[in-house]
Amino acid sequence: MNMKRILVALAILITWKIMPALAAEPELLPAYACTGANANDRPYKVNLYTHKDGSSYQLLWLTDSEERFLGVGYVEDGRVIASYSDFDSGLGATSYLIAADGSLDGHYTFLGVPGVFVESCKPMEDANPTFPEHDRARPSSTPKTEKAV
Length: 149
Prior knowledge:
eight-stranded antiparallel beta barrel; 1 helix; 149 residues; disordered C terminus; 14% helix; 8 strands; mainly beta
């Protein structure tokens, strides 16, 4: 009888310990409406579009003035980790916590701009957006495996 109780307790303990590791990572929604304040403390609004590509995501931030920031990232431990660029002035990095309602609360920085800034993104529920095809990354040519002699 004692052995049976020990085995049940052990099974409960093992299940309790491994269940978080087995839980699936949350998926990003196709589009978000984001707000924040830039380095000059000026508020901004931007739309964030996502496209799942295997275990990673392609990300596109698009401002009202058509300014584009294209990035790549992944989800780990309930967070989005990504890098991005505007292809003009440099590179940036961002991290968002994915909330239970699908919203994103994050921080970002940009190369050459001192500081870390806050951005909040809410799902765009009434829209049926798609990641613009022309902004999707294309695979580069097959990498060469032989060294030139």
